[in-house]
Amino acid sequence: MAKKTIITAALTGALTPRGYKIPETPEQIAADAYACWKAGAAVVHLHMRDDEGLGTMDREKFAETVRLIRAHEDCDVVINCTSSGAVKMPPDEGRIQHFETLPEIEMGSFDAGSMNWGCAYVFENSPRFLEKLCDCYLRNDVKPEMEIFDRGMLGNVNYYVKKGLVKTPVYYQFVLGVLGGLEATPENLLNLVQHIPEGSLWSAFGIGAGHMPIMYTALALGGHIRVGLEDNVVYGKDENGEKIMATNVMLVERAVRAVKDFGNDVATPAEAREILGIKPFVR
Q1: Which residues are CB-neighbours of 71 under 8 A, at least 6 positions away?
Q2: For residue 270, what are the contacts with CB-CB under 8 A and spacing of at least 6?
Q3: Which end of the chain is least crowded, N or C, by CB within 10 Å?
Q4: Residue 50: exposed, middle, or buried by beta-carbon count in 10 A (0-12, 13-18, 19+)?
Q5: What is this structure's pTM?
Q6: What's the pLDDT score for residue 87?
Q7: Mean pLDDT value of segment 133-158
């Protein structure tokens, strides 16, 4: 039987600037989520944008987006939301309120430490906040997606597992190519995979030009993959060397082809839930 590969579509992000094909409103994000599910994504990773197009943790925008996705009666896509999606980060409670009040959210990002992001600002995920996030996810049956930007964050995850704040098997999402974290190279991904506990689950993606090398390396190493405009806005180049700007659906469709060409099967949302240990979807 062929291995099942989970494709996650990260649709929007908090930092990708306007001028690309980024969905911003709840209606646009939900429409892209549905289209990506139809194209083969088992999971959609959601960020929200405010009226100026900047990342926000507005609970009502999350609620409306989730409602619109679930309004499609045929759509069983796994809903994964950010806990760190604001340009100006709110207090801790503002980063988790949507998980506390929206039972439709099945997964949530867990950025496993603080770092200097792009030598521009501090991406702060304090120990105090991370313990609150662990508690929130445990109480609300949300599967943590451990976003790992460098090797040191693996130790942080181990700490929360040993304290009983994170259930195993852990699901890691390796984020490569952010200035301030590890570069998007096959060697760095291999090193991370070699230093997670046996039986762990993992996925990976590369930012920008690292997108394709990391996708193919993840497939070769037996992991799952993430694509989407949060991480990469360029699809490739045309015959004249001009950039072809991507859409989320284009990126998912290419990932589906890569998974199938590799000899794997694309996981359905139901299969992704089984792999990740998430309870079955009930409308």
Answers
A1: 30
A2: 76, 280, 281
A3: N
A4: middle
A5: 0.97
A6: 84
A7: 98
Read off the pLDDT band of 17 (50, 70, 90).
confident
* Rounded Cα distance, 161 and 196, in Å: 12
End-to-end CA gap in the chain? 30
Torsion of CA 110, 54, 36, 7, to 10 degrees: -30
Identify the three-state secondary structure at position 33. Answer: helix
Quick one: tokens of 50? 């405010």
What is the residue whose two structure tokens read 């925008």? 61
Contacts of 135 (CB under 8 A, 6+ apart): 165
Instruction: Please give the share of the chain, as a percent, with pLDDT higher than 70.
Output: 100
Output the average pLDDT for the chain: 96
Position 283 confidence tier, pLDDT thresholds 50, 70, 90: confident
Dmax over Cα atoms in the chain, in whole Å?
56
